[in-house]
Amino acid sequence: MKKSLMLYLFLLAILMNIFTYMFYSREVKFGQERYEKTTKKLRDSINLVSTQLSEADYFSLAHNENAQNYFDNSASGGKVILYEKLIPVVTEKLLDLNSNPNGNPYTGQDKIDNKKFIINKVKILNHRWIIADYSNGQLWGEVLLKYFVNDDESIDFEVNQSLLYQK
């Protein structure tokens, strides 16, 4: 009886070891598969976001080599204007006009209900065009501007078209 009890306990211990081994080996395999799936999903998400960012920046002076080359006049003995420095300067000059008591003149809108229109966001599309978002706190709109960099490095703006959205 004692030998059979020991034999049963021994077999039970072996079975417990086998089940434990199988459980942990499958748990490791499951963890690796989950890690691989998560990594693949994250890589796909990163690729998607990168593609969307690339598409969003397609119309941007920072990513348009032809527009950047427009500011390189070194072949004709002229000056080279670095677009990396030009973008913040043009943006700042346009936003500085928001301090005008009648509002930014390049929104293409006059005051409405004694509220002036100011430019909120600016995107420089290429060597000639800017798109900007403006509002007066109640109404919003967008404006397409032309800009010119003069020989004396001053910047001129011209409203091409302005759109005011309905309430």
TrEMBL record:
Name of the protein in its database record: Hydrolase
Domain of life: Bacteria
Record keywords, A-Z: Membrane, Transmembrane, Transmembrane helix
TM region positions: 6-24
Keyword Transmembrane helix in annotation: yes
